[in-house]
Amino acid sequence: MKHSGLSLTLPDFSRRSLLRLAMAGTAVPLLGPASARGQSRPPSKPTGQVIAGISQEPTVFNPLLLHIEVDEGVYMNLFSPLWSVDPDGKFVPELAAEVPTLANGGISADGTQWRIKLRSGVSWHDGAPFTSEDVKYTLDLINDHNFPAFSRAGHELVRDITLVSPTEIAWRMEKPFAPYLSILAWWMFIVPKHILEKEADPQKSKFAAAPVGTGPFRWSERVPGDHITLVANEKFYGTGPHIERLVFKYIPDLTVLFTQFRTGDIDYIGLQGISADHYAEARSLPDRTVVLAPQSSIETFDFNLARPQFKDLAVRKALYLSTDKDTIIKDVYYGLPSPAESFLPSQSWAFNPDLPKHEYDPDKARMLLDEAGWKPGGDGIRVKDGVRLEFTTSTTAGNHLREQVQQVLQQGWHDIGAKVAIKNLPPAVMWGDYWMKSQFDTGMAGIDFMSGPDPEVSDYFRSTSTPVKGGSGQNTFQYVNPEADALLQQGSTALDRSARVPIYQKIQAIVRRDLPFLPLFQYVFVEGTKARLVGYKPNVNVRSNCWNIRTWYWTT
After folding, report:
1. Are 374 and 334 in contact (CB under 8 A)?
2. Which superfamily, per CATH, for 296-523?
C-alpha cells in the first residue's frame, strides 16, 4: 500500500518513539498484519463507496453559517474554496486559477489591493456556470449583519468589489490583513448566487436542506440521526473523485464507533477517531491501517465568564491548580496527547514555548480561594458575596473519555470546595445555541483556534467576537481584554511573519494568565482506514481529515 510519511511496524519501534514522531507533526501509519502495500492506480471512473464513521452529526449545510468542525468534513466534499491548504501548509488553487501573491500581481505591495483570476469552465452541481458573481455574492452575504455568519474576520475589511470579468474579481482591503489568504482557503466556501439570491431568508432556505456546490461530490440524501450520502460529481474541475458514493455515518458512542471500524461496517474512522482506550487493540487489527494524526486542536475546559463565580480570576486559577492534568493524560488518554499551556499547537510558527507550566497543588488552590474570600459553607461548598462555587459542566454525551475526565475534575474540585454537576448533551444540542450563545456554565471542547496554518485567533479572543452579544465569531467564553484586542489588531495587520511572532507569543501569555479556559492537551487523533483504501492523509492545517476524500480509492 502506498503511504505518505513513514511506514513503521510496532515491533521495530517503541511506543514512545512513535508518539514523538506523531507530536513532531509526522503521521505514523501503524499497519495491521495483513495490510496491502503494493502500488496501485485510481480507477478510470468513480467506483465503489466509502463509509466514513464520525462521532458527531453534521447539521448545518450552508457553510457560511455558524457551524462546528464535523460540518466542515461535509463542506470539503460538497463545496470549493478559492484555494485549499495541503499538509505542508502550501496553498493549492481550487476555484481560483492561481493563488494571488505579490510576485504574480494578485496582491499589492501594501496588502490592500487584491485581484483574483478564477478557474474557467467550472459548473455548479445543477449545471449553472460558476462566475465571479458567486464570489462577490458570498462576500456580500458574509458581511450582511442580518446574516449570522460563521466569521467576518478579514471579510469585514473588503471594500469596492469589482467584477472585472466572469473569471476575474478585484477588491480593496480597508487595511492589510495578513491572515486573509488562510481565511479564504478552507474557511470560505463559495455559495451559489443564482440559488440563494432567490431565497427570502438565506439562513432558512431550501438550499440548506439540499445544498448545491462545485465540489467533488453532489448531495444525495440525509437521514437525520443516521447518515448523509453524497455521490460523485463527474464534472468536477479537479482530480477525482475516484469513489462513486461517500456516506457520512454518525455514531455518537465512541465505543460503538470503534466496534463498527473493527467489524468493517465503516471504512474510515474519523472525528473523533479511535479513543485512546482502544488504541492497543486498533493497532493489531488485521487489514486495517491505523494512524497517529497530529491535530492543531487543543482540549480545553471552558468557562462562561459571564457567570458570577468565574468573574474572579482566583477561582479559575484555583480550579487549574486542582486539575490533575498528568493523571488525566496518562490514565484516561493512555499518554497519547501532550500537555498544553497555549491555544496554539506546538507545530505553529508562532508557538510560545515559555509559558508557565501547570502545577498540581490542591493545597495552594485552597489557600488562593481563602485569600480571595471564598469561604466554605456548612456543606463545604465555598461561598462569596452570596454566590456559591457551584456550576454545571457539559460536553457531548457518549464521549466516554471526556466523561471520565469530568468525574476526575468533579472529585478534585469538590475537595477544594467547588460543587460540579455533569450535564452532557447530544452533539447537535451541545454545539448549537447552548454553546454558540453561551448558555453553558462550563464546557469541554477540542478547539482548533487557528485560521488554518495562521495563528490569527480574533474569532475566539477578540471582545467583539461574542455571538450572544451580537458579534460574529466564536468567543463563547465572553472573554474581554483590551490589551489582547490591541495585540490581535497588530498581529493581523503586520505583513512580515518575523514581526508577527512576538505579538502572538504575547497574546498566548496574556490568555494563559487570564485563563478563559483551562488548556489540557494537544490532540493526537487515532484514525484508521481499511488497508485497501488508498489516499488518506492527515492534515494538521484543517479541522477534518476528510479534506482529500476526492483522491481516495479502493485497491483490488
Report:
1. no
2. Dipeptide-binding Protein; Domain 3 (3.10.105.10)
* Contact criterion met (CB below 8 Å) for 267 and 249: no
Q: What pLDDT was estimated at residue 289?
A: 97
CB 418 within 8 A of CB 389: yes
pLDDT at 36: 43
CA angle 400, 328, 312 (to 5 degrees): 100
The answer for residues whose C-beta is within 8 angstroms of residue 191's C-beta and 6 or more apart is 62, 63, 64, 79, 134, 137, 138, 141, 207, 213
Convert the pLDDT of each residue in 302-335 to its tens digit: 999 999 999 999 999 999 999 999 999 999 999 9
438/306 Cα distance (integer angstroms): 9
Closest-CA residue to 398 (of 432, 426, 428, 433)? 426
Residue with cell 450520502: 229
pTM: 0.76
For the chain, the first-to-last Cα distance in angstroms comes to 11
Distances (CA, A) of 485 to 303, 312, 480, 488, 511: 19, 20, 8, 5, 11
Q: Which residue has the cell 466556501?
A: 189
Between the alpha carbon of residue 514 and those of residues 116, 394, 418, 541, the distances in Å are 41, 21, 20, 27
Q: What is the 3-state secondary structure (H, E, C) of 364-432?
A: HHHHHHHHCCCEECCCCCEEECCEECEEEEECECCCHHHHHHHHHHHHHHHCCCCEEEECCECHHHHCC
CA distance 270 to 525: 8
List CB contacts of 121: < 8 A, sequence separation 6 or more: 237
Tens digits of residue pLDDT in 373-403: 999 999 999 999 999 999 999 999 988 899 9
Cα 218 to Cα 229: distance, rounded to the nearest angstrom:
9
Range 10-53+214-295+525-554 has CATH code 3.40.190.10: yes
Low-confidence ranges of the chain (pLDDT < 70): 1-39
- Tens of pLDDT, residue by residue over 511-552, are 999 999 999 999 888 999 999 999 999 998 888 999 999 999
- Using CA atoms, how far apart are residues 463 and 487, in angstroms rounded to an integer? 12
Spatial neighbors of 200 by CB under 8 A, at least 6 apart, are none
What SS3 state is found at 519?
A: strand
Query: Residue 165: how many CB atoms within 10 A of its CB?
Result: 11
pLDDT of residue 398: 86
Give the Cα-Cα-Cα angle 161, 162, 165 (nearest 5 degrees): 140
Q: CB of 212 within 8 A of CB of 126?
A: yes
CATH value of 80-208 in 2.130.10.10, 3.90.76.10, 1.10.300.10, 3.40.50.1170: 3.90.76.10
Characterize the bridge pairing of strands 158-165 and 168-173: antiparallel
Cα–Cα distance between 83 and 184 in angstroms, integer?
7
Going from N- to C-terminal start, the domains of the chain cover 10-53+214-295+525-554, 80-208, 296-523
Cell of 163: 467584477
